[in-house]
Every structure is written in structure tokens, then in C-alpha cells.
Specification:
128 residues, alpha/beta, Nonspecific Lipid-transfer Protein, Chain A, globular
Length: 128
């Protein structure tokens, strides 16, 4: 069991994404980079990680990208609730708990990637 948003979690999540049929189908032919910024993290004031989709594969890693397509910001409580399936991203956005900046058109065109991202990671055994 890995700790949520740890390096180990990033590695396990990358494996889960690339092995998930729905996610693999959703990313076919897609190039997309998402930067995530999580505030109020228990071990860090702010934790940044990113998802890069290219060449029909995906990778999650801690750190920041120079020029992401989209940046998603929320606090740790919201990120945890989304990860556990207690809150969906649309509701988090509509209630102001999740902020999105960048190429909104590209994000909307690739909504299937975002949906399947959550589905693929729902099976991970995670410690919060």
C-alpha cells in the first residue's frame, strides 16, 4: 500500500493507467499535459505533480512542467475526496474546491481521458 501522492503512488498509478483498457482507449492519439498543484499537503505546504499523455502512453511524476496544457489546483482534502470517489471533479469545480487554468478547450476535448484517469486509479490500494 502506497501513500497518496508519494513517489511510490506515482509509479503504481502510472502502471495502473497504462494497464487500464478504458484509459488506453481514451488516450489513443492524444497529447496532453496536466499539472496538478495540491495545497495543504500533510508533509508539504504545496505538492506538485503532473500527468503527461503522449505516444499512446501516460506517466505520472512529482514536480512541475514548463508549459502544461492545463493546471489543476485544489487542497489535499479535495484531492483525497476525489481520489476516494467521494467527490467528482465536476462537482469540485462547480463548488470552487478545484480550480482549472490553461487550455480549457483542449481539456474539454479530452474529458474522456480525465474520466478514465479516475476510473483507472480507483483500484489502487492507497493510504491517506
Amino acid at each position: 500500500m502506497s501513500s497518496f501522492l508519494s513517489e511510490e503512488w506515482m509509479s503504481e498509478a502510472t502502471e495502473a493507467l497504462n494497464a487500464h483498457d478504458g484509459f488506453s482507449t481514451a488516450i489513443s492519439g492524444v497529447e496532453l499535459s496536466l499539472q496538478f498543484v495540491v495545497t495543504d499537503h500533510p508533509t508539504d505546504d504545496e505538492l506538485s505533480y503532473h500527468l503527461v499523455v503522449a505516444d499512446d502512453g501516460a506517466g505520472l511524476a512529482q514536480g512541475t512542467l514548463d508549459d502544461p496544457d492545463v493546471t489543476v489546483s485544489n487542497d489535499y482534502e479535495t484531492a483525497t475526496a476525489i481520489s476516494k470517489g467521494e467527490l467528482n471533479t465536476q462537482m469540485a469545480f462547480m463548488t470552487g474546491k478545484l480550480k482549472v487554468a490553461g487550455n480549457m478547450a483542449k481539456l474539454m476535448m479530452n474529458q474522456g481521458v480525465v474520466n478514465e484517469f479516475a476510473n483507472a486509479l480507483s483500484s489502487l490500494d492507497v493510504e491517506y
